[in-house]
């Protein structure tokens, strides 16, 4: 899987003297990097969820591959999340994770299975067989034609395994039966397999199961639809057709506004990553599963290449398995802390916490620690060099460069202006969130305050407003801070902008005298006629003494990068 453009980390130390390393971190700036927390028994109370929201959780993951039939368990977590959002007045998006074509060991008795290094164990497709230390029945009809050969690896572990526990088995294939119904393996380590459902990963296996299991469909039509979930995380995405099938089912189930996150977690998904990225709304690199499909020395290549491809396409990308140690310990290892920082420098939009929050002893500490690391890494991220790298790769820095997408042209103009003028903030007016996504693609140093202007749509039978969905879904974008506009207070380029600047001042994002870059998308709306179309520009404002009105020079740049207006007089935005 080749990629164009150099793979690099955009690191510049904030203080060459290194004295800041010895200082306490005291930044109150919201982290640009987003955080997904998996909701489970360790964190599903209103109190703990409130603490996670205060710490910086922006997306809550409900993994229905765990206890898929126990929807009441997941509903409790979702209901408590809503209560926590009301208590903290913090916005959070809901992510529903599917089971998909995942293969599991069925240990219906729930009795622990003790395996010893060197022993032989048989993996069977007979789901009715009783699990034992010598026989592991799996939820897959046949392994015939799956590509399993002697010497291939099989991993068996508990849900959200960390890799360090003694509840995971590493098996090596010795032989495969002619009918593909059983595989004899040698156990590589002493372990005790615990739980009713154990995750299984076959190295280099071709999995032909449907991308949405029947249980997934039932969960979507009940839990998903009742809660109007914001994102569907599609487990084990293998190709673009998997996404098309999931999209068709969501649309038919009344979940047209739900976006799809493609989880790339096996060799097939990795090889088809470009078509997946082009078809997905965002991507998760599931390192836990992928790590069982690739040799350890190849994992970093897959990670850097995937992040680079997503960054170039402007598709949000998340990474899992970062501070596994914090499942049982209050601090991460040195390697884990460095890993989190490098993910930020390599362009990740966000981090996914799994076992750390689902069943960990320190869920809130894990969230706070990860975001403290990301905030420090962001302060060292060379935004300008990154912008130059992406625009070079897109061929936009040549004399004959041509950009056909007007919205992206405005996005590049906004980021360039904010960088050169050292603006404190970028304000984005958008209906769908696309303008914010394109600006976030270039990773500006400034926070991106995204004002969601409500969009009214109709399917011929009823009217709906997309504002709430767009605001929550914008939370997946690195650097984006979404707020919903009240369309009743006036035009997007007038009172709504003034209200947004007040919010920015209240949150400490701006101070009097700061410069602010405002980007307005080229969209025609019914409410204001051609207003948004005419306002498809980038404005440069200087804030007055109250932090809301603008004083001194105001410039307006069109999508071709031309200054179309420049004024010295005061301008009252109200």
TrEMBL record:
EC number(s) reported in the record: 2.7.1.40
Enzyme class: transferase
Domain named Ig-like: residues: 101-201
Molecular functions (GO terms): ATP binding; kinase activity; magnesium ion binding; potassium ion binding; pyruvate kinase activity
Pathway: Carbohydrate degradation; glycolysis; pyruvate from D-glyceraldehyde 3-phosphate: step 5/5
PROSITE patterns listed in its UniProt record: IG_LIKE
PANTHER family xrefs: PYRUVATE KINASE (PTHR11817)
Matching InterPro entries: Ig-like_dom, Pyr_Knase, Pyrv/PenolPyrv_kinase-like_dom, Pyrv_kinase-like_dom_sf, Pyrv_Knase_brl, Pyrv_Knase_C, Pyrv_Knase_C_sf, Pyrv_Knase_insert_dom_sf
Gene3D superfamilies in the record: Phosphoenolpyruvate-binding domains, PK beta-barrel domain-like, Pyruvate kinase, C-terminal domain
Entries under SUPFAM superfamilies matching the protein: Phosphoenolpyruvate/pyruvate domain (SSF51621), PK C-terminal domain-like (SSF52935)
Identification of the protein by name: Pyruvate kinase
């Amino acid at each position: 899987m080749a990629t164009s453009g150099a793979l690099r980390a955009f690191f510049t130390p904030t203080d060459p003297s290194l004295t800041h390393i010895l200082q306490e971190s005291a930044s109150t700036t919201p982290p640009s990097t987003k955080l997904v927390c998996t909701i489970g028994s360790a964190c599903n109370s209103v109190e703990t969820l409130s603490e996670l929201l205060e710490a910086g959780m922006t997306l809550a993951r409900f993994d229905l591959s765990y206890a898929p039939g126990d929807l009441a368990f997941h509903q409790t977590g979702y209901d408590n999340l809503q209560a926590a959002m009301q208590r903290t007045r913090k916005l959070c998006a809901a992510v529903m994770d599917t089971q998909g074509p995942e293969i599991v060991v069925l240990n219906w008795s729930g009795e622990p299975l003790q395996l010893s290094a060197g022993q032989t164990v048989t993996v069977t497709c007979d789901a009715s067989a009783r699990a034992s230390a010598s026989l592991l029945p799996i939820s897959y009809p046949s392994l015939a034609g799956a590509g399993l050969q002697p010497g291939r690896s099989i991993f068996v572990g508990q849900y959200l395994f960390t890799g360090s526990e003694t509840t995971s088995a590493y098996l090596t294939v010795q032989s495969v039966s002619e009918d593909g119904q059983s595989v004899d393996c040698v156990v590589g380590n002493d372990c005790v397999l615990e739980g009713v459902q154990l995750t299984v990963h076959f190295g280099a296996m071709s999995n032909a199961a449907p991308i949405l299991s029947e249980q997934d469909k039932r969960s979507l039509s009940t839990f998903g639809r009742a809660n109007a979930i914001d994102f569907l995380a599609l487990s084990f995405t293998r190709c673009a057709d998997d996404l098309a099938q999931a999209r068709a089912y969501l649309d038919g189930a009344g979940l047209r506004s739900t976006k799809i996150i493609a989880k790339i977690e096996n060799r097939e998904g990795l090889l088809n990553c470009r078509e997946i990225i082009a078809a997905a709304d965002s991507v998760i690199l599931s390192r836990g599963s992928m790590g069982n499909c690739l040799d350890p020395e190849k994992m970093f290549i897959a990670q850097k290449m995937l992040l680079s491809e997503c960054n170039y396409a402007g598709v949000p990308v998340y990474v899992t398995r970062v501070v596994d140690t914090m499942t049982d310990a209050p601090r991460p290892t040195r390697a884990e802390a460095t890993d989190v920082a490098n993910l930020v420098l390599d362009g990740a939009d966000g981090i996914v916490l799994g076992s750390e929050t689902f069943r960990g002893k320190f869920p809130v500490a894990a969230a706070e620690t990860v975001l403290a690391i990301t905030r420090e890494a962001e302060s060292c991220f060379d935004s300008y060099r990154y912008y130059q790298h992406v625009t070079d790769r897109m061929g936009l820095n040549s004399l004959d460069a041509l950009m056909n997408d007007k919205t992206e042209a405005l996005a590049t103009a906004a980021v360039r202006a904010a960088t050169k003028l050292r603006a404190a903030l970028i304000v984005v007016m958008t209906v769908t969130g696309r303008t914010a996504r394109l600006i976030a693609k270039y990773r500006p140093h400034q926070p991106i305050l995204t004002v969601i202007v409500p969009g009214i749509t109709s399917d011929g039978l009823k009217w709906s407003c997309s504002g709430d969905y767009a605001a929550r879904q914008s939370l997946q974008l690195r650097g984006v801070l979404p707020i919903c506009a009240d369309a009743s207070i006036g035009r997007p380029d007038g009172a709504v902008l003034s209200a947004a600047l007040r919010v920015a001042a209240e949150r400490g994002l701006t101070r009097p005298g700061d410069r602010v870059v405002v980007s307005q998308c080229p969209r025609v709306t019914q409410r204001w006629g051609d207003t948004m179309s005419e306002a498809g520009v980038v404005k440069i404002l200087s804030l007055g003494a109250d932090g809301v009105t603008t004083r001194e020079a105001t410039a307006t740049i069109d999508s071709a990068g031309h200054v179309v207006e420049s004024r010295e007089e005061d301008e009252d935005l109200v």
